[in-house]
Amino acid sequence: MTTTIATANVNGVRAASKKGIVEWLADTDADLVLLQEVRAERDQIPAAALESGGWHWHTAPSRVAKGRAGVALLTREDDVEARVGFQSDEFDTAGRYIEIDHGPVTVGSLYLPSGETGTPRQEEKYRFLDEFGAYLRAKKKEVEAEGRHFVVGGDWNIAPKEADLKNWKNNKKTSGFLPEERAWVEALKTEAGFTDPFRELHPDQDGPYSWWSYRGKAFDNDAGWRIDYQLATPGLGAKALSARVDRAESYDTRWSDHAPVVIAYDI
Predict the structure, then answer these.
(1) How far apart are CA 175 and CA 177, in angstroms?
(2) Distance between CA 89 and CA 131 in Å, rounded?
(3) C-alpha angle 168/91/123, rounded to 5°?
(4) Distance CA 208, CA 161 (A)
(5) Residue 179, CB half-sphere, CA atoms under 13 Å: how many?
(6) Which position among 49, 105, 109, 155 has the lowest Cβ density within 10 Å, counted as fewest Cβ atoms?
(7) pTM, two decimal places
(8) What pLDDT band is residue 110 in, cutting at 50, 70 and 90?
(9) Percent of the chain scoring above 70 in pLDDT
(10) 158: Cβ–Cβ under 8 A, 6 or more apart, which residues?
(11) Would you give the DSSP letter of residue 164?
């Protein structure tokens, strides 16, 4: 059986609902949808979005910065219990992580802090990496001991490799491409054993990118970053059948500065 998981940073669900996410939710072939930067309480999400496609919404808004961050996980089934956070005193109320069990797979939606080089925001990002990295390692061992799979999709706000952003030479000191951040992702793969199914299916391709700045001609020139992806336990990663980015046809048809990343698994 094929299970398709889509992840997308919506850059504010209220704004996106006026630009095309309602139609995307109705048309997508995904079985699960992971959303980030929802920026809304449940009662603030437009009815058109909530009702589109018959999805059941599981949300985790930020309790510390209202109208910021926020993640969601959309399922076709209604008998799903969602878990918010990862046992972090600092981040569990910040709208950064939510997960569910879907058959033999535990699925998480992540919005990792963006950071800013040389500021307290970057220090916050490093604290998140320390705590969440430990959680990922522990959770992987737990689910694999149970004979299950684990995948986390979302906006990781880190481009792991030079092939993951267009202008990497000019971004060596930019948050999202700092050596410490890239080493953190690399360690998840080489030490903890997670896989990057999209990159494994597209090993020799630059990108495909999932985020483009609204400034200038970044989208038109495809000067983007691949910061939205899914990291999976190896047993699940090996079952990835296809991966794509639902890139808008044109700048004016975008409903976010990100595009959905969609991966189909044979599970």
Answers:
(1) 5
(2) 10
(3) 45
(4) 12
(5) 0
(6) 105
(7) 0.97
(8) very high
(9) 100
(10) 112, 176, 177, 181, 182, 184, 185, 227
(11) G
Can you give the CATH number for the domain in which 174 is found?
3.60.10.10
State the angle between helix axes of 179-190 and 120-145 in degrees (0 to 180), rounded to the nearest 10: 0
pLDDT value at residue 174: 98
Q: CA–CA separation, 45 vs 15, rounded Å?
A: 10
CA atoms of 182 and 214, how far apart (whole Å): 24
Give the position of tokens 């199914």: 197
DSSP H or E run through 189: helix 179-190
The range of the structural domain enclosing residue 238 comes to 2-266
Going across the sheet that includes 2-9, the strands are 56-60, 71-75, 32-36, 2-9, 261-266, 240-245
Alpha carbon of residue 99 to chain centroid:
12
- Please list the residues that pair with 261 across neighbouring strands: 7, 245
As beta bridge partners, residue 230 has: 153
Give the pair of three-digit tokens for residue 231.
């990291």
- In DSSP terms, 60 is beta-bridged to 71
Distance, CA of 210 to CA of 195 (rounded, Å)? 18
Percentage, residues of the chain above pLDDT 90: 97
What total of structural domains would you count in the chain? 1
